[in-house]
Amino acid sequence: MRVVFLGPPGAGKGTQAKKLAARENIPQISTGDIIRDAIRSGSDLGREFKGYSERGELVPDELVVRLVATRLDAPDCSHGFILDGFPRTVPQAKALEQLLDERRQPLTGVVVFDVPDTEVVARLSGRRSCTKCGRIYHVVFDPPSSGSLCPSTGGACELMHRADDKPEVISERLRVYREQTAPLIAFYQAQGKLSQIDGSKSQSEVESALGRIVA
Ligand code: AP5
Questions:
Q1: Which residues lie closer than 8 Å to 95 by C-beta, 6 or more apart?
Q2: Residue 199 and residue 196: Cα distance in Å, rounded?
Q3: Active-site entry in 13, 36, 128, 135
Q4: Active-site residue among 162, 166, 193, 201?
Q5: What stretches of 80-195 show up as alpha helix (H) in DSSP?
Q6: Using an 8 Å Cβ cutoff, are 45 and 38 in contact?
Q7: Mean pLDDT over residues 181-208, rounded?
Q8: Residue 201 is among the residues annotated as catalytic for this protein
Q9: Catalytic: 127?
């Protein structure tokens, strides 16, 4: 399985990608997570990423494509992968096509998660995530059992609210999604690779629908 998850911020791509990756024993490649790890590391690249991420803008294509190219060469990608949040622009999609052609690993599908803006805002304002294990929670829809600590790490890690989940940044991310990422829907539809999913349903309903699509 070599799939791309597309959709607006907060659509549930990361939540579903983690479940599917664990079930299929393939990696979830989240460019957002890679970028946040680089920012946390304080590296020169991380400092460059920080401004883009905190403003809700996309990191330049060539930098993200380079990160993905390196990641796809890791041995754990040889049996498949889920690309979560990449590609995000038509140039990124074309670059991905070339990377996968070179590796003779064409995409097997692209899934777009449809979620209305009002739901996006509700989800992102209540999102909490663990910086250690990556588990994603929501204060209302999927609350952690131990308050502000991550139960999956035995309470060893404080849950965080992402810097780009502030209302003004969410609006910018939605604008960027519509302008730069939504055109990928037509791009992949034209290739006959696109499936759409109603991401506004409950996590378990979305998981079942996704299972039927990627099976
Ligand atoms: P990234 O981290 O990729 O953010 P995003 O695409 O905006 O998506 P999110 O992670 O916000 O949401 P999600 O769809 O994964 O939702 P989640 O499962 O967490 O990118 C961040 C930044 O990095 C970008 O702005 C950019 O700067 C940069 N970047 C990343 N990739 C890039 C690229 N390719 N090119 C250039 N720049 C790039 O769920 C959200 C919440 O909802 C959670 O609290 C969850 O518990 C809850 N939830 C999930 N499903 C449901 C459900 N069915 N019902 C109710 N609640 C639910």
A1: 61, 65, 87
A2: 9
A3: 13
A4: 162
A5: 90-102, 117-125, 167-176, 183-190
A6: yes
A7: 97
A8: no
A9: yes
